[in-house]
Amino acid sequence: MATRVWLTALLLAFLLAASTFTARVARADSEEDAAAAEVVEGADLGIVGDDTQVSSDGPLSPASGVETVVVFPKNAGKIVPAGEETELLVGLQNDGESTLNVVAVHSTLHLPFDHRMYGQNLTVQNFFNASVPVSVQATFPYKFVVSKFLQPGAYDLVGYIVYEIDQHPYQNVFYNGTVEVVEAGGLLSVESVFLITLGIALLGLFGLWAYGQVQQFSKKTKKAPKVELGTGTTDANIDEWLEGTSFVQRSKSKKKQT
């Protein structure tokens, strides 16, 4: 009985975790779809080489009232396959006092323990005719490719969006966090890993339940009383069954005669 209660509780815990995970994935997908729907249309793109630098006389600072956010579409784990194209969406909110013109988006890859050590300078993506008026939100796609020769592991990705206001350049850091670089072709989605793990756990629970059933059946078989059949026992049962019949009376009369 205790085994059944424990198995039931564990199964309910796994089902609850699965439902929570599914809800989170669905909510994340809906947010990503909403962000993708706001991508700026009519903004011409220009892709420059990985080693091209955005021109400036010194470090650029962000403009007042300009905020950024980033979304990795259908990639909640921020997995980056080496040698393959990875896409993210850069959201920009202009709460300043003037229209801004987006110039470019670029990023760099660093070793996580020291940002002074570059792993790779990634693609610089130029934008032409990409203006964002005051009090307007806009989303810009950015695609980059990590070198296929890069050692798999955790790296820090730093992404920048460069824009101009009244011909003065500014720059916002839209992302500064960890990404996981993996070998191409060896990628497993978070959903697949979770479903595989859940399937293994359910198989384990079923195995424990079956083992408990076998053990209970064995105990019942051992406790069953043994029925011994013998001549004396059989005759007694027959005598009780024939008690009061003519057969018994005839038998008694014969015994008296003898």
From TrEMBL:
It is a single-pass type I membrane protein. The chain crosses the membrane at residues 193-212. Pfam families: TRAP_alpha. GO terms for cellular component: endoplasmic reticulum; endoplasmic reticulum membrane. Keywords: Calcium, Endoplasmic reticulum, Membrane, Signal, Transmembrane, Transmembrane helix. InterPro entries: TRAP_alpha. Belongs to the TRAP-alpha family. This is Translocon-associated protein subunit alpha. The lineage of its organism: Eukaryota, Viridiplantae, Streptophyta, Embryophyta, Tracheophyta.
